[in-house]
Amino acid sequence: MFEQLLAVMAPVLVSVAIGYGWVRSGHQFPLNFVSTLCLNIGTPCLILSSLAQTHLTFQLFMQMAAGTFGTIAVLGLVGIAFCKAKRIEWRSFVPALIFPNTGNMGLSISLFAFGQAGFGYAVAINVSVSIVQFGLSAIMGAERPFMALLKTPTIHAIWISLVLIFFQIPLPLWIENSTHLLGSLTIPLMLITLGVALATIRSNNLLAGAVFALLRLVIVIPISLGVGWLAGLSGSLLMQLMLQMSMPVAVYTYMFALKAQRSPELAASRVFASTVMSLVYLPIMLAIILALLPSTNVGH
Questions:
Q1: Which of 90, 168, 239, 269 could link 83 by a cystine bridge, Cβ 3.0 to 4.6 Å?
Q2: Is residue 131 part of a domain?
């Protein structure tokens, strides 16, 4: 089992370590360029190619989306209630609670843990999380939210994918090959970028970040399992939802907090602490999933 878990986690750790070590050793990294490239080209291509290759049905996609949206909604309500009770600013707390890193870490771990077929389900979850992320970002950060969404390539990739899935239309081979080639660059680039972000963000309160990360994990696991079950998910699909929603806090929340000037240092501590802690609890979660689902194609 150890070799199987190592096969899943090692590519993630190596890629993140490369980004972290690259910056720490004094080399330059075009963070804005790479982030923009992944956001505007890599991610849309990854969504199109992944959903096309997995042959995900529209009904199953909607079930995964319902489980994801439901989990985010419940987490949001819990977060707002907690903030009101503790008199905490919710605009910095709630995004860190509801947005897991389903992009950088979630997709890569799912690919190695569940294979190409299971990877499609992780893409469906990531797509659902992205819809809420981009929607919230546009509403809170743009003067013309609707136009901002129209200018987001990932949103177009999402609705095109949904149309293709609903009508069971296959991608032309030349488009499938092109999007697969460009999309395949995305995961390693995102993981290296995550390492760069961890090396550059400034976090002065790691204890508060660690407490938040632990609290988030305790809350997310039962909520995702409960909501996923209500959405009709079971077996490996339910485990996928739980695993993806348990990913560490998305780097996006730090970037959003920095742009909006809403406690960016606290957001940085949550991202950094939760990411470091995930290197401990994610292998444990994968071991449990492997034990519960022996047929899961972990490590292939």
A1: 90
A2: yes
